[in-house]
Specification:
The structure holds 2 protein chains of 2 kinds. Helix content of chain A is 68%, strand content 0%. Chain A contains 8 helices and no strands. The N terminus of chain A is likely disordered. By secondary structure, chain B is α+β, with helices and mostly antiparallel strands. Chain B has 3 domains: 300 residues, 2-Layer Sandwich (Nucleotidyltransferase, domain 5); 109 residues, Substrate Binding Domain Of DNAk, Chain A, domain 1; 102 residues, Substrate Binding Domain Of Dnak, Chain:A, Domain 2, CATH 1.20.1270.10. In chain B, helix 11 crosses helix 14 and helix 12 packs antiparallel against helix 13. Chain B is globular, with a radius of gyration of 30 Å. Classes of the chains: A mainly alpha, B alpha+beta. At the A-B interface, helix 3 and helix 4 of A face helix 10, strand 19 and strand 23 of B.
């Protein structure tokens, strides 16, 4: 019954120990530096951003902890501190810093963080939506009509009509923005659900299956929310650009 | 580890600094002035840089180069609008501006290298050691081509450029070190030719740039032009004289406009007086600070939009900025200070000399690189999005603006046609949708094995290093082989050109040294001839005729040698004169000593 725990524990271990030091060929036991020759070690290309920043795969992150970890690792890897070192070490420092910066940028932003987690857990990036989601159909339809009228009023230089339409479009925009906020609220609720599922240990095979199903459901809903949100945001941006 | 210096290579003035223990210090020249005007004059007697070159602006306008930083990494079309303001001739060759002086054409990095060499020489004289490594600052909003051009300039000057850092961030390092500043700060940097705004977070020795914005073609020069144009118009109206026909007069006008602007930072009104050519008398006019502000208001406004964008990109509100720091000579203008204060809602700082703070910060960064300062770390960003041109002339961004550097992005390329052997890649920088609206950085051809369409997979890595400079590498995913790329810069010197300029620079360095040695030997010869003539007048009666004849003979020989182009010939004759006048000098010394003794009582002797 401890089987599942053991394998998962072993997996993290394997990720940390990147076998041999590129320089002295001794086994690397330290986290980022070889304990024998103190040379910096390249971060594995397969290293995920959570592991890179020493964080568990959770969606609610304490920004101050993240920043502190980022600063500490920047001090370990930044090219400024490798000016007097060998060319190999300078290259590792550059590559490690680039990876660290990308990891930090991705995890700092909650939306990018969720998208990244989806990619890790469900293997693919977000869907790109080209048609409106069902529950937004009415709003989008109304908006498209208003936009069409607005464009023809613009072409006909109908100033009075334009003003009225602009007011209507503003209302449309506010509605959509409200919907976007609702989606984000739901998304952040799912963050908490995910985190509690992640910390749960399954005692039996059946419980394990159940847990997996729960996680998959969360991931599925998150994926939908994220793609709907992106769709909505693009529409709102277009709207702002058109009426500006 | 050899010493690394910090250099502020400015549009109007340049400065070199070093770390003296824990304190950054600017190096002053012999005259005590730290700043070297970024002016290069190519005279018949050779090359002059700095203050003496500034005198040639009026005397020799076609051969005196100023504000060369405005041309770094640019093509001729980029500066079309302001061509009429420059008295020297500009051309383009291989996407790079060339400045034509007499028979020769110089690229902007070559001219900048001359300024860098003067700074290097200064530092070497001051520190008594050879300087080979430097950190050079650039405006934060400089694109890849402009950064590369600056690095080229350093190489041509015989310097290993260990790091290119951004001017506002350099300033923040100097402030952070000396003022122990913490929190969120905005650095507003308005220099001679460029404007930058950077928003940083300072915490526990980490200087994290959150966002940056700017305009690499807006600075003090533009303010001067506004004033100069006003004067130009009024002179034309009043006397019917078009000064644009006189390049030397245009320089007088430009310098007078600059002085007027500078004085109006302290005074409320000044009188401008310009001597007109062809006996037209003197043009006089009073300019008030209000008038200057009305003239330049729109320029100051142009700096505010980038500020707002930078604040927004940092995800902040103006009220969340704890401190605002002013950098660059143009921030001495009261109008600038007022508008900045209004935008951020707080009084901006300028405790550290705005002309020096960038060079001082560069020295701090140099110290970090040499392992001296270890508790400070600068995390800067790339100012512009980087991308490639895709089907239909669209820009596909790979690295967004304000991304912390170093950073990298990978892109997979394949083929569309069976047997296709190469893929053309066009790299762009900017934030516009269409490729043509962005800055073209470089092009290269990716080699692919001839296979059915879609089968080859070549991964290209675009890496922006800590200098903000792009490095491109390619790897065939199927074979794992890396491919060396020949990236052709759109607006830059090729590697071969830089190599050639470096070797030319060494050749010129030898010629320059020779010229200087000749000039120094001649000056010394003149002084010796004068002194010997004087000695002969005083003590000619104390030596015999034979000796007098020998001295006269050696003097005549030195006179002839003085015209020589070989300093060793002159030196040899100087030595001859010194030898034959040795006895005369002794005799004179004795006599003057006796005279001194005769007129004094023994007790008065020391």
């Amino acid at each position: 019954m401890d089987q599942a725990q053991k394998t998962s524990g072993k997996r993290t271990e394997l990720q940390m120990a990147r076998s041999m030091c590129w320089h002295c060929q001794s086994e690397v036991t330290g986290e980022y530096f070889c304990e024998q020759c103190i040379k910096v070690q390249p971060l594995s290309k397969e290293l995920d951003y959570f592991t890179c920043l020493g964080l568990p795969r959770l969606l609610n992150i304490d920004i101050n902890t993240l920043e502190a970890k980022f600063y500490a690792l920047s001090r370990a890897f930044h090219p400024d501190f490798y000016q007097n070192k060998t060319e190999s070490e300078q290259t590792i420092s550059l590559e490690n810093s680039a990876l660290l910066n990308t990891a930090y940028r991705t995890l700092k932003d909650p939306i990018q963080r969720a998208e990244y987690l989806l990619k890790l857990e469900a293997g693919s990036a977000k869907d790109i939506r080209t048609s409106p989601p069902a529950d937004l159909f009415e709003e989008i339809l109304a908006l498209q009509e208003d936009l069409e009228e607005y464009r023809s009023a613009q072409a006909g230089q109908n100033q009075v009509g334009l003003e009225q339409l602009r007011a209507r479009l503003t209302v449309d925009r506010e509605t959509l923005e409200q919907r976007q906020r609702e989606m984000e609220t739901r998304l952040f609720e799912l963050f908490t659900t995910w985190d509690s599922l992640q910390s749960r240990q399954s005692q039996t095979e059946q419980a394990g299956r159940h847990l997996r199903q729960g996680k998959d459901a969360v991931l599925k809903e998150m994926r939908e929310l994220l793609s709907n949100r992106t769709y909505l945001r693009n529409i709102v941006n277009d709207l702002i650009a058109t009426t500006a | 580890m050899a010493r690394i210096v910090g250099i502020d290579l400015g549009t109007t003035n340049s400065l070199i600094a070093y770390m003296d223990g824990p304190t950054p210090r600017a190096i002053a020249g012999r005259t005590g002035r730290g700043m070297v005007p970024s002016v290069v004059a190519l005279t018949d007697n050779g090359l002059i840089v700095g203050d003496p070159a500034k005198e040639h602006l009026v005397r020799n306008p076609e051969r005196t180069i100023y504000s060369v930083k405005r041309f770094m990494g640019k093509g001729l079309a980029d500066v079309e609008e302001e061509l009429k303001y420059f008295p020297y001739k500009l051309q383009e060759q291989g996407g790079v501006i060339r400045i034509q002086i007499g028979e020769k054409a110089y690229s902007p990095p070559q001219i900048s290298a001359m300024i860098l060499k003067e700074l290097k020489r200064r530092a070497e004289e001051h520190l008594g050691e050879e300087i080979r490594k430097a950190v050079i600052t650039v405006p934060a909003y400089f694109n890849d081509s402009q950064r590369q051009a600056t690095k080229d300039a350093g190489m041509i000057a015989g310097l290993e450029v260990l790091r290119i850092i951004n001017e506002p961030t350099a300033a923040s390092l100097a402030y952070g070190l000396q003022k122990k500043t913490q929190g969120t700060i905005a650095v507003y940097d308005l220099g001679g030719g460029t404007f930058d705004i950077s928003i940083l977070k300072l915490k526990d020795g980490i200087f994290e740039v959150l966002s940056t914005n700017g305009n690499t073609h807006l600075g003090g020069d533009d303010f001067d032009r506004k004033v100069a144009n006003l004067l130009l118009r009024e002179i034309r109206e009043r006397s019917g004289l078009d000064l644009e026909q006189y390049p030397d007069q245009m320089q007088v006008l430009r310098l007078e406009a600059e002085q007027t602007k500078i004085r109006l930072s302290d005074e409320l009104k000044v009188t401008v007086a310009i001597d007109l050519p062809i006996g037209q008398g003197t043009f006089r006019r009073e300019v008030t600070r209000d008038q200057l502000e009305a003239l330049t208001m729109d320029l100051v406004e142009q700096t505010l939009a980038p500020c707002r964008l930078a604040i927004k990109d940092a995800g902040l509100q103006p009220a969340q900025i704890d401190e605002v720091i002013l950098v660059g000579g143009s921030t001495r203008m009261p109008l600038v200070q007022r508008r900045v204060q209004e935008l951020f809602g707080k009084l901006p700082h300028s405790e550290l000399n705005p002309d020096e703070v960038v060079a001082l910060g560069a020295a701090v960064q140099a110290d970090i690189l040499s392992g001296g300062t270890q508790d400070m770390l600068l995390l800067d960003v790339t100012p512009l999005s980087l991308g490639i041109e895709t089907m239909g002339g669209v820009m596909s961004p790979l690295i967004r603006r304000n991304t912390t550097i170093p950073t990298s992005a990978k892109e997979m390329f394949t083929t569309y046609v069976d047997g296709q052997t190469s893929v053309d890649i066009h790299i762009l920088q900017g934030d516009r949708e269409l490729a043509k609206d962005n800055r073209s950085l470089a092009r290269f051809q990716l080699k692919v094995p001839p296979l059915p369409a879609g089968v080859p997979r070549v991964e290209v890595q675009f890496l922006i290093d800590a200098n903000g400079i792009l490095n491109v590498t390619a790897k065939d995913v199927r074979t794992g082989q890396t491919q060396s790329l020949e990236v052709k810069p759109s607006y830059g010197l090729t590697d071969e050109e830089v190599e050639r300029m470096i070797s030319e620079s060494f050749k010129f360095a030898a010629e320059d040294l020779k010229a200087r040695q000749v000039i120094e030997a001649r000056t010394e010869a003149e002084a010796i001839i004068k002194a010997t003539e004087k000695a002969l007048g005083l003590g000619g009666h104390l030596i015999d005729a034979e000796e007098t004849a020998a001295i006269r003979g050696s003097l005549a020989a030195l006179e002839t040698a003085r015209g020589s182009e070989d300093h060793r010939t002159i030196r040899a004759r100087i030595a001859d004169v010194e030898k034959v006048t040795h006895h005369l000098a002794e005799v004179l010394m004795d006599t003057s000593l006796k005279e001194a003794l005769q007129n004094k009582k023994l007790s008065e002797l020391p």
